[in-house]
Structures
1.
Amino acid sequence: EVELVESGGGSVQRGGSLKLSCAVSESIDNGECMSWFRQAPGKKREGVAAIDGDGRITYADSVNGRFTISKDSDKNTLDLQMNNLNPEGSAMYYCAADSLGGSCDTLIPFFRYWGQGTQVTVSS
């Protein structure tokens, strides 16, 4: 059983930045697909970014150029640097590991392991 614990959420104004981290109980370099998702109230969970075991990265169009996903092997965390945030980015953000839905770059929310989420609120 892999445990994922997110941190780093908070409240920022439009244009601000936040860095989310997901602490992983097993090695971050185990070759599994890992991803960040977000879900706003009343909306479906949507993929934000993913990184596969070979380091290939996929971003949702809505965040491409503003968000950066990365692995920190020293800290064993999956990180998400979010810049130039806008109110549409307000949501609960979840990290996920071990895709059950085929290719890592599909950003489909079908993963074996999920964290509890961290809230991001962006005000205008």
2.
Amino acid sequence: EVEFVESGGGLAQAGGSLRLSCAASGDDGDADAIGWFRQAPGKAREGVSCMSDSDGSTYYADSVKGRFTISSDIAKNTVYLQMNNLKPEDTAVYYCAAARELNTGWGSKYEYDYWGQGTQVTVSS
């Protein structure tokens, strides 16, 4: 069982930056990957980024490539999402999640077994 607590969300202006944190507790030794997802009002939850637990490979949605960076601090058991050059369309609730095993692809929410409670990111134009 893994539990996550996200933080770092808030209000930013277009072009600004925010850094989200996802602190994990519990036994995450069997996690294959840690991902960030987001869900805007009336839209489906979509994958934003993912980091493989085995080799540290990172993956990004096309919409955030070059602007967002996923990283981790093993000592703190925390995963981060640095978000730069924010756009109004980045407005959403952001969730971190862990997958015991990725089978069909990192971007599918159905691959993930544990979820945080989410943190709101609002970007004004």
3.
Amino acid sequence: VQLQASGGGLVQAGGFLRLSCAASGGPFRRYDMGWFRQAPGKERKFVAAIRWTGGSTYYADSVKGRLIMSRDSAKNTVCLQMNSLKPEDTAVYYCAPRCGTILTARQHEYNSWGQGTQVTVSS
């Protein structure tokens, strides 16, 4: 499956953005999906994940209550609604699929990393 993230941009602290990830070329509906981010000079880290059913989500502690992940399997997309943004949210955001039975933050279990989208939050 090929993935393309979009929706990033420059926003002031306290603002919001909505990221989208469009999938093609594979059985998207059967994959759990994850969002990860990589800040300048740092390792890529887990942000959020959603089950292939859309029935459950899992978030990193740093984003709980501010970011909301959703999916529309009919449109082969997942979204990340980002509210109350902070400068520390600045990073390139990536989406990736995973086959599994439970949600996980373990990055090595995700694959097919596509192009990310840059989010910059100014203070």
